[in-house]
């Protein structure tokens, strides 16, 4: 069975791929708006791990709307949620049996509700999988420590292979670095360098 997994090159989506690998032919997909080429970091991580990789084009209007929403809100939650849902929709349009992401039990954003999952499945005739949904951050960190080589650091210094980098670039174009700093809280980002 073919599965498209939304992939950033980080530890959560990589762990999700490893969990699903025995059951599916996993292709790692990264949504891109073609604002920056940061998605290539995810392609490089996928290559190091030996997974098929495919960039999927996302609607630039969704990025513009999400960036405006984040600036207006003063935080990224609603904008990131909108883009994640759009990326799942685009992944579900591929010729696959299932789509997945690396969202964890305690993630505040993005999240996919039961109703959203069922709607996605019904409209696209795919299965939606979230293999980390029952795992908290500590459990994920322990599993990652045992299986992956990971680089971590502040999000603006670690390669980011998903749409967050492009949203940051849009926000910077609209309001400069200060706008980015006001929207995105400081947080640690991960980038997978390989398997242990």
Structural overview:
This protein has 196 residues and is an alpha/beta fold. It has a single domain, classed as Rossmann fold, CATH 3.40.50.620. Helix content is 48%, strand content 20%. It has seven helices and seven strands. β4, α5 and β5 form a beta-alpha-beta unit. The chain starts with a strand and ends with a strand. The mean pLDDT is 93.
Helix content: 40-55%
Q: Under the CATH scheme, which architecture would be assigned?
A: 3-Layer(aba) Sandwich
Please report the distance between the alpha carbons of the first and last residues. Answer: 27 Å
The number of helices is 7
Low-confidence stretches: none
CATH fold group: Rossmann fold
Approximately how much beta-strand content do the residues carry? 15-25%
Shape: globular
- The number of E-state strands comes to 7
The largest sheet, given as strand count, sense and whether it forms a barrel, is: 5 strands, parallel
Order of the strands making up the biggest sheet: 3-2-1-4-5
Cα-based radius of gyration, to the nearest Å: 16 Å
CATH superfamily: HUPs
> What class would the helix/strand composition place it in?
alpha/beta
Q: Report the order of strands and helices.
A: EHEHEHHEHEHEHE
């Amino acid at each position: 069975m073919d599965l498209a997994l939304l992939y950033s090159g980080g530890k959560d989506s990589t762990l999700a791929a490893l969990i699903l690998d025995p059951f599916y032919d996993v292709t790692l997909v990264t949504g891109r708006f073609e604002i920056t080429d940061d998605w290539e970091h995810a392609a490089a991580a996928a290559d190091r791990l030996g997974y098929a990789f495919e960039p999927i084009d996302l609607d630039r209007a969704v990025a513009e709307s999400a960036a405006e929403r984040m600036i207006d809100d003063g935080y990224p939650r609603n904008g990131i949620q909108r883009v994640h849902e759009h990326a799942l929709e685009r992944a579900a349009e591929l010729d696959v049996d299932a789509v997945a992401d690396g969202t964890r039990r305690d993630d505040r954003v993005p999240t996919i509700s039961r109703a959203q999952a069922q709607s996605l499945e019904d409209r696209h005739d795919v299965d939606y999988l979230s293999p980390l949904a029952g795992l908290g951050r500590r459990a994920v960190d322990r599993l990652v420590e045992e299986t992956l080589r990971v680089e971590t650091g502040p999000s603006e210094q670690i390669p980011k292979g998903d749409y967050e980098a492009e949203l940051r670039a849009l926000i910077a174009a609209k309001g400069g670095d200060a706008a980015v700093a006001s929207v995105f809280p400081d947080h640690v980002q991960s980038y997978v360098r390989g398997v242990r």
